[in-house]
Amino acid sequence: MRFADGVSALDLNSGLWNVPLGYRNARVGEAVMAAMTVGSYGGVFRRSSVAAEEVAERLVHLWPRGTYGKVLFATSGSAANDAVIKLSRLHRRRLGRSDRPVVVSFEGSYHGQTLGAMGLSGEDLLQGEMLTAPHEFVKVPVDDSDRVRQILDSHGTRISAVFIEPLQGTGTRPMDDAVLQEIFEARRRHGFLVIADEVATGFGRTGVMFRSARWRESADLVVLSKALTNGTQAASAILVGSEVADVFAAQGAIFPHGETQAGSLWACAAMNAVLDEFEERFGMVTADAQLPETRSMEQFLDKVSAPSMGLQVRGEGMFYTITGTEDFDGLAVGERLRSAGLVVHAGLHSIQLAPPFVLSHQQWADAAETLKEELHRVCADG
C-alpha cells in the first residue's frame, strides 16, 4: 500500500479482511473486466442468470450433497444478515408460529451496520439510539454454556434464529464447543434456525475454507461476503439449507428480498475467479479443506514472540489479535507500525492481523522482524 504521505507499507490486514489473494490479483481482475464487456448489469432481481446459477452451484457443491439447496445473493454482509433475519421470521410463519419472534446473537459480536445487523451485533454501535425494537434482539455470553441454555429455553419457540460467528471478528475469539452443543440441542427442542455468519471467516481466514463446516452439526444458513470477490465487488451470498428451502417450496411461498446490484455479471465473474484461485492455488475444493498457508502464520507468530513481552495472542488460522494491558494504545501502535511499513487493524488496546495468503517467504520474514521490533519498543517504553 502507498499512502498520501509517502509511506509504503505491507498490508497485514488484507484490506478489511477481504483481500486474501492480494491486491491486483490478475485472474479476478481479468474476469471482472471481461464480464463488463459482455453486459452492464445482469442482476438477479425477480429472475436468475446463467452466471449466478453457476456460482450458486459451485458454492453448494463445496459442502456434502444435500446440505444446502439454494443460494441468495446480496450486496454486503450487513445486507445479507438483514435478509436472513427476514427469512428466519418468515420460516417461523410457514411453520405456523405467529407470536412475536426474537433473534439471538452473542455478546461482543459484529454482524454489520445496517439496522438489522446492528441489532444483531453485540458491540456497542449506538443501537440504543437507533433501534426501534431492541427487545427483539437477545444477546448471550460466548463462554457460558449453562447461561446460553437458560436464555434459549426462556425464549423457546419465539426464537427464529441464532446467529454465530465461528470466530468473532472482534478479538478473534473462537466459539466455545460446549456453547455450540447447547445451541444445537436447543435447536432440536425449539425449532429455530442456526446461522453461520462467515462474512469475515469464510474462504480460509480461520485456516479452513469455512469454519462452520467443521461443526458437529450443519448450520441452517451460511452468510458469505468479504473474500467472496477478493474485495473487488459489493457482493454477498446466503447458502440456504435444503430443509429450510423445502418448507417454502412445499407451500409455494416466496421470500421477498431483492437488491438491484446483487448477483450482477461482474460480481459473479469475481466469485467464480476466486473459487478458481482457491481450487488451483491452494487445493481447497471442499468446505472443510485446510489452508496450507497457516504454517507460515504460525512461524510468523513464533518469530514475533509477543507473549514474551507480556502480550496476549488469540485467534486461529490467518486471523489473530495481539492484546496488551489498558496502557497498550492500540491506535498509536497501529500508526507506529504503518510508519515502519506494516498495516494492521488497530483497536483501543489491541492490534489484529489478517494477512493475505500470498506473501513471499521474504515478506513474512521482514514483517515478523518489523513487528517484533516495534512491539518490543512499545512494551519497553511502558
Biggest beta sheet attributes: 7 strands, mixed
Structural class: alpha/beta
Mean pLDDT: 94
Report the sheet-strand fraction. Answer: 15-25%
Number of strands: 15
SSE topology string? EHHHEHEHHEHEEEHEEEHHHEEHEEEH
Total helical elements? 13
Distance between the termini: 30 Å
Q: Can you tell me the residue ranges where pLDDT is under 50 for at least 5 consecutive residues?
A: none
CATH H-level homologous superfamily name of the largest domain: Type I PLP-dependent aspartate aminotransferase-like (Major domain)
Q: Based on the structure given, which CATH architecture of the largest domain is correct? A: 3-Layer(aba) Sandwich
| CATH topology category name of the largest domain | Aspartate Aminotransferase, domain 2
* Rg result: 21 Å
- Across the major sheet, the strand order is 2-10-9-8-5-3-4
Enzyme class: transferase
Family: Belongs to the class-III pyridoxal-phosphate-dependent aminotransferase family.
EC number: 2.6.1.62
Protein name: Adenosylmethionine-8-amino-7-oxononanoate aminotransferase
Description:
It is an enzyme of class 2 (transferase). Its cofactor is pyridoxal 5'-phosphate. Belongs to the class-III pyridoxal-phosphate-dependent aminotransferase family. The chain is of the alpha/beta class and 382 residues long. It has two domains: 26-282, Aspartate Aminotransferase, domain 2 (3-Layer(aba) Sandwich); 293-381, Aspartate Aminotransferase, domain 1, CATH 3.90.1150.10. The chain has 13 helices and 15 strands. It has helices at residues 14-17, 26-38, 50-60, 77-94, 115-120, 127-130, 145-155, 177-190, 242-250, 265-282, 294-304, 330-340, 361-381, and strands at residues 10-11, 68-74, 102-106, 137-140, 159-164, 167-168, 173-174, 193-197, 221-224, 236-241, 312-316, 319-323, 342-343, 345-346, 350-353. The strands form four sheets. A seven-stranded mixed sheet has the order 2-10-9-8-5-3-4, sandwiched between helices. The chain has a four-stranded antiparallel sheet with strand order 11-12-15-14. The protein has a two-stranded parallel ribbon with strand order 1-13. Helix 2 (26-38) packs antiparallel against helix 10 (265-282), helix 3 packs parallel to helix 10 (265-282) and helix 12 (330-340) packs across helix 13 (361-381). The two termini are 30 Å apart.
